C-alpha cells in the first residue's frame, strides 16, 4: 500500500479552498463611496492602499500633543445582526466602542481602521457593514482611513462574521482629563444611553433568546417595537458631545460605561482618596433593562455590573460648571441629569457606588 497522500483531481486554487477574491474586490468598490464621506483634510490617498495615511503636520498646532489609541469590537451583538440579516447598524456600535473610549481622556478622534472577518464574502453585506462604520465615523468626527476584510472559510459559517476596529485621537498634554483633576464636591453628570449599547449581550441573548425562547420578530408591548429592533438599537456615539463640553465649560473626567457596568467604569477615573456616589432615584432605566432582569430573574446587582442601566457616558465637572454642562448637552440633544457627587473615600472598598432605588 502506498503511503503517499492522494492527489485530488484537478489543480487546487484559492477559490476551491473557499476564498473568492473577485467578491472581495467587488466589496471594496461598493464601500468606497461610504469611506469618502468620512474624509478629513489631513487624510492622504484613498481606499485600496496598503496603509492609511494621515498628515501628522496637522498636530503642529499643539504644544505637546498626546496620541490616544483604543481598539475594541462589538461582541455577540453581531449574532443578532446576523440572525436578522441587518448589517448597516453594527458599524455604529464599533465606532462608539472605540472612539468613546478615546474621548474619555479629552482626546479628539482623528482616524480609525476596521477589521471585518467573514465566513464568505457577500459584497453587499460587507459594504453595508462598512456603511455603518463610515456613518459612525462621521458622528464621531473621525476619518475611516482603511481596513481589512478577511474571508475564513472552514473556520466561520457562510453567514458568520465579526468586526473589530482601532482608532487614534489627540489631546493637548495640559488638557488631559482624568482622576488627578477630580476634587471633592464635583458633580457627576449622567448622559442617557440609547439602550443596551454593545455590552452584556451574552447575558441578554441567554435570557431572552435561549431561556425564554423569544423570537427576534416578537412585538414586545413595553418596548413599543420588536425585540430585534430593540436589541439592534445602535450604541450612542458621544465623542463630539464630550468635546463640546470641554470647549464650553470645565470638565475633570469622563467615563464610558461599557462592560462592567456603571459603578465599575466610573471607579476607573476616581482618585484613591475619593468616592463617587450615584443616586438611582435620579433616573428610570429603559424598559429593556427591566425585561432582561424580570425574564431571567437576574438580581439587580448582577444587572448593574453587566449592563449600562440607561447611562452611556459620565462627566465629572466642578460644581460651578454643572449648569453650563447640562445646558450644553441639552443644546446638543443629549438627555442628561445630575446623578451624584464626589465625596471622601472613607472606608469604602470601591471608588463608586449606586444608592437608593430607581425612579418610577
TrEMBL record:
Chief localization: cytoplasm
Known catalytic reactions: 2-formamido-N(1)-(5-O-phospho-beta-D-ribosyl)acetamidine + ATP = 5-amino-1-(5-phospho-beta-D-ribosyl)imidazole + ADP + phosphate + H(+)
Protein keywords: ATP-binding, Cytoplasm, Ligase, Nucleotide-binding, Purine biosynthesis
Enzyme class label: ligase
Compartments where located: Cytoplasm
Metabolic or biological pathway, per its Swiss-Prot or TrEMBL entry: Purine metabolism; IMP biosynthesis via de novo pathway; 5-amino-1-(5-phospho-D-ribosyl)imidazole from N(2)-formyl-N(1)-(5-phospho-D-ribosyl)glycinamide: step 2/2
GO cellular component, one term: cytosol
Location of the PurM-like C-terminal domain: 183-348
GO biological processes: 'de novo' IMP biosynthetic process; adenine biosynthetic process
GO molecular function: ATP binding; phosphoribosylamine-glycine ligase activity; phosphoribosylformylglycinamidine cyclo-ligase activity
SUPFAM superfamilies for this protein: PurM C-terminal domain-like, PurM N-terminal domain-like
Database matches in CDD domains: PurM (cd02196)
Residues in PurM-like N-terminal domain copies: 63-171
EC number: 6.3.3.1
PANTHER family in alphabetical order: TRIFUNCTIONAL PURINE BIOSYNTHETIC PROTEIN ADENOSINE-3, TRIFUNCTIONAL PURINE BIOSYNTHETIC PROTEIN ADENOSINE-3-RELATED
Similarity field: Belongs to the AIR synthase family.
The protein's name in its UniProt record: Phosphoribosylformylglycinamidine cyclo-ligase
Organism: Streptomyces pluripotens
Amino acid at each position: 500500500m502506498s503511503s503517499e497522500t492522494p492527489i485530488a483531481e484537478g489543480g487546487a486554487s484559492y477559490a476551491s479552498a473557499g476564498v473568492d477574491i473577485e467578491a472581495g474586490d467587488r466589496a471594496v468598490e461598493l464601500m468606497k463611496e461610504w469611506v469618502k464621506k468620512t474624509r478629513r483634510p489631513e487624510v492622504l490617498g484613498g481606499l485600496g492602499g496598503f496603509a492609511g495615511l494621515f498628515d501628522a503636520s496637522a498636530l503642529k498646532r499643539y504644544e505637546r500633543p498626546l496620541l490616544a489609541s483604543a481598539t475594541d469590537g462589538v461582541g455577540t451583538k453581531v449574532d443578532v445582526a446576523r440572525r436578522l440579516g441587518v448589517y448597516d447598524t453594527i458599524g455604529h456600535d464599533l465606532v462608539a466602542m472605540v472612539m468613546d473610549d478615546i474621548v474619555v481622556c479629552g482626546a479628539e478622534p482623528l482616524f480609525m481602521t476596521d477589521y471585518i472577518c467573514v465566513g464568505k464574502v457577500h459584497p453587499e453585506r460587507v459594504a453595508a457593514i462598512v456603511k455603518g462604520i463610515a456613518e459612525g465615523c462621521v458622528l464621531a468626527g473621525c476619518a475611516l482611513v482603511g481596513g481589512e476584510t478577511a474571508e475564513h472559510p472552514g473556520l466561520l459559517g457562510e453567514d458568520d462574521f465579526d468586526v473589530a476596529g482601532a482608532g487614534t485621537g489627540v489631546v493637548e498634554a495640559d488638557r488631559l482629563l482624568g482622576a488627578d483633576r477630580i476634587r471633592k464636591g464635583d458633580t457627576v453628570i449622567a448622559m442617557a444611553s440609547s439602550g443596551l449599547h454593545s455590552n452584556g449581550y451574552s447575558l441578554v441573548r441567554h435570557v431572552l433568546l435561549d431561556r425564554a425562547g423569544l423570537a427576534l420578530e416578537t412585538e414586545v408591548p413595553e418596548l413599543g417595537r420588536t425585540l430585534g429592533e430593540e436589541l439592534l438599537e445602535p450604541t450612542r456615539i458621544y465623542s463630539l458631545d464630550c468635546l463640546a463640553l470641554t470647549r464650553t465649560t470645565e470638565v475633570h473626567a469622563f467615563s464610558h460605561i461599557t462592560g462592567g457596568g456603571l459603578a465599575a467604569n466610573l471607579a476607573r477615573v476616581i482618585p484613591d482618596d475619593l468616592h463617587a456616589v450615584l443616586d438611582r432615584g435620579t433616573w428610570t432605566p429603559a424598559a429593556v433593562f427591566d425585561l432582561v432582569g424580570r425574564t431571567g430573574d437576574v438580581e439587580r446587582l448582577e444587572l448593574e455590573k453587566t449592563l449600562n442601566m440607561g447611562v452611556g457616558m459620565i462627566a465629572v465637572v466642578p460644581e460651578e460648571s454643572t449648569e453650563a454642562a447640562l445646558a450644553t448637552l441639552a443644546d446638543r440633544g443629549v438627555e442628561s441629569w445630575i446623578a451624584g457627587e464626589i465625596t471622601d473615600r472613607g472606608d469604602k472598598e470601591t471608588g463608586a457606588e449606586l444608592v437608593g432605588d430607581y425612579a418610577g
